[in-house]
């Protein structure tokens, strides 16, 4: 599957493992509560399991926003949609 251009500001970038970066996102307890209703941060093993499961059950993308420096990710299977500022 290729990257998908949504419009001039949004590009869906096909998922690739980037655990060092994404683990940092999932150390934020507010983020974990908002997106997964968790009160604890993820560890590397749980993070890898989550991404492998999401990728196995749908089309997983990072969302590249050309107008901002936010990082985002979403799964086209509608199992998950997340925005990390």
Description:
The protein has helices at residues 19-25, 29-36, 44-56; strands spanning 4-5, 10-14, 60-65, 71-75, 81-84. The protein has 85 residues and is α+β, with helices and mostly antiparallel strands. The chain has one domain. The protein has a 5-stranded antiparallel beta sheet, with no helix packed on it. The radius of gyration is 13 Å and the shape is globular. The N and C termini lie far apart (26 Å).
Number of helices: 3
Main pleated sheet: 5 strands, antiparallel
Mean of all residue-level pLDDT scores: 80
Portion of residues in beta strands equals 25-35%
Topology as H/E string? EEHHHEEE
Q: Kindly give the count of domains.
A: 1
Helix and strand content put the structural class at alpha+beta
Terminal Cα span: 26 Å
Number of strand segments: 5
Q: Please bin the fraction of helical residues.
A: 25-40%
Contiguous low-pLDDT stretches (5 residues minimum) are 75-85
Spatial shape: globular
Rg is 13 Å
Strand arrangement across the biggest beta sheet? 1-2-3-4-5
């Amino acid at each position: 599957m290729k990257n998908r251009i949504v419009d001039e500001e949004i590009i869906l970038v096909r998922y690739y493992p980037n655990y060092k970066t994404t683990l940092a996102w999932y150390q934020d307890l507010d983020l974990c509560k908002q997106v997964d209703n968790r009160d604890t941060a993820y560890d590397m093993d749980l993070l890898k399991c989550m991404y492998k499961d999401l990728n196995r059950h749908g089309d997983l993308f990072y969302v590249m926003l050309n107008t901002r420096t936010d990082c985002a990710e979403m799964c086209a299977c509608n199992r998950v949609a997340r925005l990390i500022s």
